[in-house]
Design goal:
It is a single chain. The chain has 2 domains: 215 residues, Rossmann fold (3-Layer(aba) Sandwich), CATH 3.40.50.300; 102 residues, no CATH class. α5 packs parallel to α6. It contains 11 helices and 10 strands. The chain starts with a strand and ends with a helix. With 329 residues, it is an alpha/beta fold. The longest helix is centred in the last third of the chain and has 27 residues. A hairpin with a 2-residue loop joins β1 and β2. It has a 6-stranded mixed beta sheet, with helices on both faces.
Length: 329
């Protein structure tokens, strides 16, 4: 088994009465991309901020590139590159100057910083705009410049927090291409996103997070298969429902049915429910509960309730059996 670039266990973070993270576990093997997929407010950004040492968790532990997030945050910062939800670029500097400045802040020599800036300008498809100030860039160009800034120091682990949110389709595709090249070079990437298509396109494995918990994880195909099993289960339930509904008084009065079907319809739970509903709408059910003298013995509301319970007790196991057979195909 490959070593883990990122490992987190039982991360918990609360803000007042809001539990942003509720004990999530994450693992990113080296050389892979983990897509953290979920809606706004699910806890994705909180997880990234903890793993990038910007927040301390209330509970749990985490390691990034083999360095403990809690005991050695400075060591973690030297091994990661972070591109947040909003492009952190200086609008008054050119694209080249932004990257050169970041290189110098990392302690590179002038020559090294210039060389690295030129490489990343080309890599992120910003050659034509390299000498323009960032305030003239489109949203997609600013996000690619921000991504380039996260790569200046050749980090071991790259964290991208919703890198394409708010971009138009062209900007998203351009950013995808840059990330795909980064992945092809063997980078370890944690990618958060709201878009299933993006996670499907870029991530090796996906963890679905909601309300601070990981509710599903696996490869894209595995998660699609899980969605398919739900559809299979629903279809399997309908297989048993159709015959019951057909041989009932839901559509045709039992008195108008052929003799063979009439016997089955009279004892059909769907018939009981249909007749009870008609009684309710016709205001023929006594106002007191239970009515004086008890419920009528045939097709009563009580019988309808008991029949509904019987449907669940009898046909739910049959539905599960049917589901398992179809899901194995």
């Amino acid at each position: 088994m490959s070593a883990l670039a990122v490992e987190a266990e039982g991360l918990v973070k609360t803000f007042g009465s809001t539990r942003a993270l509720d004990g999530i576990d994450l693992q990113i093997p080296q050389g892979t991309v983990l897509g953290l997929l979920g809606p706004n407010g699910a806890g994705k950004t909180t997880a990234v901020r903890i793993l990038s040492t910007l927040l301390r968790p209330d509970a749990g532990r985490a390691q990034v590139a083999g360095v403990d997030v809690l005991t050695d945050p400075h060591g973690v910062r030297g091994k990661i590159g972070l591109a947040g939800q909003y492009a952190a670029v200086d609008a008054n500097l050119t694209g080249f100057e932004n990257l050169y400045m970041i290189g110098r802040l990392y302690g590179m020599s002038r020559r090294q910083a210039r060389s690295r800036a030129r490489v990343l300008i080309t890599r992120c498809r910003l050659d034509e705009a390299a000498e323009r100030t960032a305030k003239t860039y489109s949203g997609g160009m600013r996000r690619r410049l921000d991504l380039a800034g996260a790569l200046v120091a050749n980090p071991e682990v790259v964290m991208l927090d919703e890198p394409t949110t708010g971009l138009d389709p062209r900007g998203r595709l351009d950013t995808w291409e840059v990330i795909a090249e980064l992945v092809a070079d063997g980078a370890d990437v944690l990618l958060t996103t709201q878009y299933l298509e993006e996670a499907d396109h870029l991530a090796d494995t996906i963890a679905v997070i909601d309300r601070g918990r990981v509710i599903a994880r696996g490869t894209s195909n595995e998660l699609k298969a899980q969605c398919h099993t739900v559809e299979v289960a629903q279809s399997a339930g309908l297989i048993w429902l159709f015959p019951l509904t057909f041989v009932s008084s839901a559509f045709v009065p039992t008195g108008n049915m052929p003799a063979v079907l009439k016997v089955a319809a009279e004892w059909n739970p769907v018939t009981a429910a249909a007749d009870a509903s008609r009684e309710l709408f016709a205001n023929t059910v006594p106002a007191t509960f239970p009515p004086p003298g008890g419920w009528p013995g045939e097709h009563s509301v009580l019988y309808a309730v008991l029949s509904s319970v019987a449907i669940i007790a009898v046909f739910a196991p049959l539905t599960v059996v049917r589901y398992r057979r179809v899901a194995r195909r």
